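Q&A log
Question type: sequence-to-structure
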Amino acid sequence: MSWSKEEMASEVINMLSDGATLNLGIGMPTLVAELMPPTKNIMIQSENGVMGVGERPTAETVSPTLINAGKETITVNKGASFFDSALSFGMIRGGHIDYCILGGMEVDVAGNLANWMVPGQKITGMGGAMDLVNGAKQVIIMMSHFNKNGTSKLVYKCQLPLTGTSVVNIVITELGIFAPAVDKFRVLKLAQGITKESLGGDALYV
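Response status: OK
Response body:
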């Protein structure tokens, strides 16, 4: 059985050190903020200028003036702070973010990441991803294992335009947890009932 998105987010949370700083990409990674237990004491940063992002707001707590970098409404935790983009990217480029969780279109065995465009399709821009993958101390990719065509998104060599080279530390999909290891992916954990043969291209995995 494959993991749900919530189970994937829980696997990410289990990897995070207590008291760490964290930046979350748009989409699936935002589930990490929703499921983060207060005991972890994680400080979540958003590159639009927020430190201390909380869980998704309810109808009673929502504020149109509180958003993340993906323009989704957020809450903030006690002790949160707000600042301009210059300071925000100073934190990112200066190596002050411990973990970055991003979505992905392709990750290859060398740790290269493609997550910002498909040639021929509408481009919304790379955003802060190019800074995050080079500035964060650990880069974790949280994505579906297969694309809409049923092809594995874990590949020997990325074919899509790259966001960063040799930047990915860990990949979490609904099928398991993987680490790029030069010429293959090291399997760190598989979801219950999943085998290497289920992954698509089992020669890619050790």
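Response note: Helices lie at 5-15, 31-35, 85-93, 129-135.
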